[in-house]
């Protein structure tokens, strides 16, 4: 197998890992029978196989081999809140007081960042799918105020190299992943202000004193991670983030900030 990055072989460490985690290996082999890759999402896989977690409490999770990792799981307050809510029933197929109260709490916490309303999703993947669909509908259906029709003109979604917004919205090093949703994705280099600005300008070329915002196939939205998870936990520079905000404003596009990784790091994300 090619090794273009010249990464040293891990035969020794892998052998020790396997010998110490035989139960996790067996559990992984069993999981492969029913789930592609033996998991619900590829982001939790690690070679040669992932540890299988048996339990978690406070700051510790325990694997089948009874080894531990320092993480925060089974917080007592959260567990109690879930128990109280479950005692009232679940999956009503209608509006519940708990859901409304939770939505109000989320909006209050992130209000400083401009969050006015919230739509709940089951995963980060689903949330980003809804965000992109909403952006396309909003940008192409709104009235610009200049008498020009913008309906069904903008279709391109800007993503970045090594981005991960869920299994069906990712950016490779040179282009969108083959497994992506059939949106019109354009990939720009992460943390590169000059090249990203040039790519966006090419999507909506300037005309006169402004941009050709009604050009067919123009930029509908930018989706961006302040810190890339799958891309190696690389943080965006303040200059790059501000540049994206400005580009979205200039081109009448929406700026989607994917904070699956970073929202917990500050009171308002």
UniProtKB/TrEMBL annotation:
The keyword ATP-binding does not apply. InterPro entries: Aminotrans_3, PyrdxlP-dep_Trfase, PyrdxlP-dep_Trfase_major, PyrdxlP-dep_Trfase_small. The keyword Transcription regulation does not apply. Pfam families: Aminotran_3 (PF00202). Keywords: Pyridoxal phosphate. One of its GO terms (molecular function) is pyridoxal phosphate binding. Transmembrane segments: none annotated. It comes from the Eukaryota. Its cofactor is pyridoxal 5'-phosphate. This is Glutamate-1-semialdehyde 2,1-aminomutase. It comes from Paracoccidioides lutzii (strain ATCC MYA-826 / Pb01). The lineage of its organism: Eukaryota, Fungi, Dikarya, Ascomycota, Pezizomycotina.
